[in-house]
């Protein structure tokens, strides 16, 4: 069981980094982190509505997977 928990925690760590990057990729509404990292400059280039929808889908999907893995780790930890 210890190996399973370590593997799940590693996956959660990787998903955390990926989720942070996906959130930073979202189109900024102004005055936030996206402007600080150059989001204001790329906003004029015009991102596709389809690209933004796909980015939203990926972000929500990975966030749900992240939450499910954390719940699974918690439940496995209670069994051990």
From TrEMBL:
Its main location: membrane. GO terms for molecular function: protein-transporting ATPase activity. The keyword Ion transport does not apply. Keywords: Cell membrane, Membrane, Plasmid, Protein transport, Translocation, Transmembrane, Transmembrane helix, Transport. It is found in: Cell membrane; Membrane. GO terms for cellular component: plasma membrane. GO terms for biological process: protein secretion. Coiled coil: none annotated. InterPro entries: SecG. The chain crosses the membrane at residues 6-25, 58-77. The keyword Cell membrane applies. It is a multi-pass membrane protein. Belongs to the SecG family. Involved in protein export. Participates in an early event of protein translocation. This is Protein-export membrane protein SecG. It comes from Bifidobacterium breve.
């Amino acid at each position: 069981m210890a190996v399973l928990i370590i593997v799940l925690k590693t996956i959660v760590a990787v998903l955390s980094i990926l989720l942070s990057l996906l959130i930073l990729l979202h189109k900024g509404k102004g005055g936030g982190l996206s402007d600080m990292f150059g989001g204001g400059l790329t906003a004029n280039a015009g991102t596709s509505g389809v690209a933004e929808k796909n980015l939203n889908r990926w972000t929500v999907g990975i966030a749900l997977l992240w939450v499910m893995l954390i719940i699974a780790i918690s439940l496995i930890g209670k069994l051990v």
